[in-house]
Design a protein that fits this description.
Elements lengths: L1 H24 L3 E8 L2 E4 L9 E4 L3 E6 L3 E10 L2 E10 L6 H16 L2 E8 L5 E7 L4 E5 L15 E9 L2 E4 L10 E5 L2 E4 L5 E7 L5 E9 L10 H14 L4 E8 L5 E6 L5 E5 L14 E3 L6 E5 L7 E5 L5 E6 L4 E5 L6 E9 L2 E10 L1
Antiparallel strand pairs: 1-2, 1-3, 1-9, 3-4, 4-5, 5-6, 6-7, 7-8, 8-9, 10-11, 10-12, 10-18, 12-13, 13-14, 14-15, 15-16, 16-17, 17-18, 19-20, 20-23, 21-22, 21-24, 24-25
Length: about 375
Amino acid sequence: MKTFTLLLFFLSIPLFISAQTEELTDEVWYLHWVKLNDQTIENPNLLESNSYLWFGVDSFFSETCLSGGVHGNFSILENEISLSNVNTYPGDCEADASILFREAYYEIMLQDSSFSFTINPQEGGLIESIWVNEAGNELYFTNRPFYNSAPTEIDQMSWFLQYVKIDDVIHYTPNNEEVNSVVLQLNGYHFSTGVCAPLDGSFGFLPDTNKFNIIEMAEGMLECGPVYGNNQFQNLYHGYFWTNQLEELEYEYTENSDQSKSLVITDSQGNQLVYGDVQLNTSEFSLNSFEIYPNPVKDFLSIENPNLNIDKIQLLDLQGKIVLEQIISSASIKLDLKNLSKGIYILQLKSNHQILQSEKIIKK
C-alpha cells in the first residue's frame, strides 16, 4: 500500500507541474509596467514600446522596441519560473520613455534567474500575471495589450469590402462564382477576413484617437482558383494588412443619409480599404447595367452595355489563358465565337483595368 501511495504521489507531480506550465505558457502576455528598485515604470503605450512575451516548448521570446527583445530558456516548478541563457537586443526605440521602459525591463530580466509568479483571472476574460524576483522587482503582464478594443460603433459587425484603393487606383471586390464578397469581422481585439484564404489577427486602438495598430496576424495557405483572377485581388488585399502590420492606421466611421454605414481604413501612404455594413446587390458596375446572351452560345455572343460601364472584355479558358480580347467603344457588342472549341469559358468585363464582373460562358 505504501508503495502504491508513493507511486501516485510521484505520478501527480508532473500533472500538477503541467497544469501550472500550461496556465502560463498557453497565453501571449503583454507587459504593462515594471517595478525596479521600488520605482514603477509604465509602458508609455507607443507602438515601439509594445512588449509581449510568448513561450515555446522550453524557450521564451519577448519582443519590445520593434526588432528588439529578450529571449532564453525557461523551466517551471509550481509557481516559480527559472530563466537561463537570457540575451537582450536593443531594437529600434526612439522615444525617451520607450528607452527608459526597455532598459528597466531588461535589467530585471538579467539580474535574477528565477521569479515567483501568480496568475489571476479577472472579469471579461482578462488574466493578470505578476512576476516577482528575489530582489522584490516586479513585472506586470496581462493577456491583453495596452490598446483599447474596437470602438462600439464598428465592433461586433460584419463589414463588406467595397474596394481597395492603392496608389489612387481603385480595385473593386470580385463578384464571381468563387468570390462574391469579402467580409471583415470585428470582435473586441480580434479581426478575421480573407478573400479565399482566411486572414485572422489582433489589433489595438490607441486611446482617444481614431488610430489603431495591427499586433499579430496569421494567414491560411488556401489560394483562389486560376480562372477568375481572384488570387491577384487576394494578394492585393492581404498584402495591405501585411505591409501595414507595424504601421499606424486610421479609421473613419460614417453614418450615411440612407441609414447605411461605412468604414474607411487609411494607411500613411493614403491607400485605403473601403467597407460598408451591407453587401451591395447593385452598383454602377452591376450586371443590371448590361446583358449577356445567348448562354449557352453557338456562334455569336451579344453584350448590351447601355451605360458604357465596360471598356474591355476578355474570354479565358479554364486554365486562365486569354483566348479572346476586345476593346469596347459602343453600347452593343457581338463576339464571334464560331471557331472556339466546345467547353466552358470565363468572360471578364473590365473598366480601367479592373475586373467588374466575371461570367461563365458555355460554348456549344
